[in-house]
Design a protein that fits this description.
It comes from Hymenobacter glaciei. By secondary structure, the protein is mostly helical. Helices cover 51% and strands 5% of the residues. The chain has a domain at 19-72. The protein is elongated and about 85 Å long.
């Protein structure tokens, strides 16, 4: 009979649950990009020659991409190119 083999690999941690956070993020940005808030920024004002509404939509979109990327990136995973 063979002796029992000891498992020398590190314990596997379960993946973090990102579903509720991603759902919250989707709802938040759905609200930010919906009529009532868009109407607040829909006027003739300009910032640096850019209409305020366009600037608002661009900044909200950049925030959505950045927060989603930060949220789904796996911790402890090396970044590309390093």
């Amino acid at each position: 009979m063979l002796p029992p083999v000891l498992n020398s690999s590190p314990p596997v941690r379960p993946a973090p649950r990102r579903g509720p956070k991603l759902l919250f993020l989707a709802v938040l940005f759905g609200v930010l990009l919906n009529y009532p808030l868009l109407a607040v920024f829909d006027h003739n004002g300009r910032v640096g020659g850019v209409p305020v509404l366009y600037l608002y939509v661009l900044l909200v979109w950049i925030a959505l991409v950045a927060l989603t990327g930060w949220l789904v990136r796996k911790k402890g995973e090396p970044e590309e190119g390093t």
